[in-house]
Structure formats: C-alpha cells, structure tokens
Amino acid sequence: MIETDPDLRAVEATLFASDQPMTVEQIRGYVGDSVDVAAALTQLALHYEGRGIELVRRGKSWHFQTAADLAHLLRREREETRKLSRAAVETLAIIAYHEPVSRAEIEAIRGVQISKGTLDVLMEAGWVRPAGRREVPGRPLLFATTAGFLTHFGLTSRKDLPGIADLKAAGLLDPIDSAMGEMLFAGEESDAELAIDENNA
C-alpha cells in the first residue's frame, strides 16, 4: 500500500511537488539510489488509474495530470487556440516522423521552401526544439519534437504516432491526401498532418 510504503510515498511526493515532468534519473536524485524508482512508478500508475488525477508517462518523463474526462470541470474560461497554418502542420508532421531533421530536409520532403516564421511558431508553442547540428559541410541545424509535443497530443512516445494505414482505416484520408502522404513519407507509416489537424480541431 502507498500509505505505508516509504519508497512509494517518497516518489509520489517528489512528482507531486514538481511543476515539470521528471525522468527516473531526476526522481532518483531526490529519493536516493536505494529506491527502485521504475517499480515505484509502475505501482503508482496502477494506483491512480481511473482516479481524478493520473500518473502518466510522456517519453522518458512522468507527471501527474487531471484525468482527461474531467478536464472540462476545471476550465472556467474557454481559451481560443490559434490554428496552425497548413505549412506549420506539414512541417510539424515531417519533424515528428523524421527527426532529427534539417530545414533543407524538411523543404525537400515538402517540395517548397519554409519560412523562418513557421519553425518559430512551432518552437514558441513548445512542440519543436533545436537538436544539434548534422556533422556534414555547413553543419545544418537539426530540429526534433519535444516532451511538450507528446503531452499536448496525448502520446506516450513517437511510436504512438498514427500510421498512414491507421488513418486510411479510420476514413480520415481522401484519395488526394492518401497519395500525398505516401509521397511525403516515402513508405513510412505516416501522415501526421490530418491527425494533428484533428487534435487541434
């Protein structure tokens, strides 16, 4: 039981007090090396499953969040979400499925140039981050998605991104979108564009 297990209580308290998702290593820095943090997280996730708050994993990090079906109770004002442009949606989809990826590689996949503002919007939203430089002449800057991207779209990891077959089966692709998806992602199970549009709708 959590109420009597000091290790579980320590991990629970550490996560509860943090305003940011935490990795196993970060939690261990607070509770000590003697605590099996991974096992404690698994037990805590089961303990909170189906409750008003849940312990969830986003990438390599863990955090408490309000249960999705109860989030509406806490909203006093409806926020107006700015819609992404089609260029931003396509760019985000390409980064998510191909990261780390350079601007030139994004443009090669899209077939058109992207403005600096497009990447700025995605970085300001906290969904895209610089991810180092490729070790080739010119050392182009690379871009990748963030933990915030996973959290916003309710993904545990990038492996949870929908594949093009999934979107076809759900009837979310018309013939033109289907052909574009296969061309853009060259055989990879991907067409995040519509999936992200749906999440932002």
Describe this structure in words.
- There is one protein chain.
- By secondary structure, the protein is α+β, with helices and mostly antiparallel strands.
- The protein folds into two domains: 6-74, Arc Repressor Mutant, subunit A; 86-200, Winged helix-like DNA-binding domain superfamily/Winged helix DNA-binding domain (Arc Repressor Mutant, subunit A, Orthogonal Bundle), CATH 1.10.10.
- The chain has helices at 6-17, 24-31, 37-48, 86-98, 103-110, 116-124, 147-152, 164-169, 175-185, 192-200, and strands spanning 22-23, 53-58, 61-66, 101-102, 128-133, 141-145.
- The strands form two sheets. A three-stranded antiparallel beta sheet has the order 1-3-2. Strands 4-6-5 form a three-stranded antiparallel beta sheet.
- A hairpin with a 2-residue loop joins strand 2 and strand 3 (61-66).
- Helix 1 crosses helix 2, helix 4 packs across helix 6 and helix 4 packs across helix 10.
- It starts with 5 loop residues before the first helix and ends with a helix.
- Residues 174-180 and 183-201 have low confidence and may be disordered.
- It comes from Sphingorhabdus wooponensis.
- Keywords: Cell cycle, Cell division, Chromosome partition, Cytoplasm.
- This is SMC-Scp complex subunit ScpB.
Which keywords apply here?
three-stranded antiparallel sheet; 2 domains; Arc Repressor Mutant, subunit A; alpha+beta; 201 residues
| Secondary structure tally, helices | 10
CATH architecture label name of the largest domain:
Orthogonal Bundle
> Termini separation (Å)?
41 Å
CATH names the topology of the largest domain as: Arc Repressor Mutant, subunit A
Could you tell me the number of beta strands?
A: 6
